[in-house]
Amino acid sequence: MKKVEDYVRSIPDFPEPGIIFRDITTVLQDPDGLKLAIDGLKERLDGVDFDVVVGAESRGFIFGAPLAYEFGKGFVPVRKKGKLPCETVSAKYDLEYGSAEIEMHKDSIKPGQKVVVVDDLIATGGTIEAAIKLIESLGGEVVKVLFLMELAGLNGREKLKGYDVESVITYP
Ligand code: PRP
Ligand code: ADE
After folding, report:
1. Which of 2, 26, 41, 126 is the most buried (most CB within 10 A)?
2. From the alpha carbon of 126, which atom of ligand 1 is closest?
């Protein structure tokens, strides 16, 4: 019986020397891989009381939207700068390679809403730390942060201290 980690393809030195890129396309393109990934995330939400799923562009959309659908909740995208058409809040952050800026629509989260944040992977934690900052600036309460994969050696969890963080796959 295969596990979801068996479907992840690891590519050394992409996009830069020294980075091992954890490629999820091989998970997504296989029906068993896709099911294992969504089910692995889904079981970590059993019994969690929440109102909405927030996912980070772009790989967070792939996993966040099916989870929202599965639990009968809405899905809110966190997008890279310049993509959202209405009034936004924005935050800059650093990545394992490079830096970026993300945005959310100001009316996407209502004050007091309980939020589950989903992404494919935590590396430095910069993306999700910035997303949480935006969610909280809109009055949302982050009740769970969920990743398919965690690169534990980069200590991203340090940035998310005090939050309930879970990952399906952990790499050293
Ligand atoms: C990747 C990944 C996470 C983030 C993790 O996204 O999907 O969102 O980096 O890195 P961090 O923990 O150091 O912030 P990327 O910005 O490469 O965008 P993509 O999903 O569009 O490929
Ligand atoms: N995003 C940031 N670091 C990554 C990695 N090592 N593999 C895949 N996506 C990433």
Report:
1. 41
2. 14
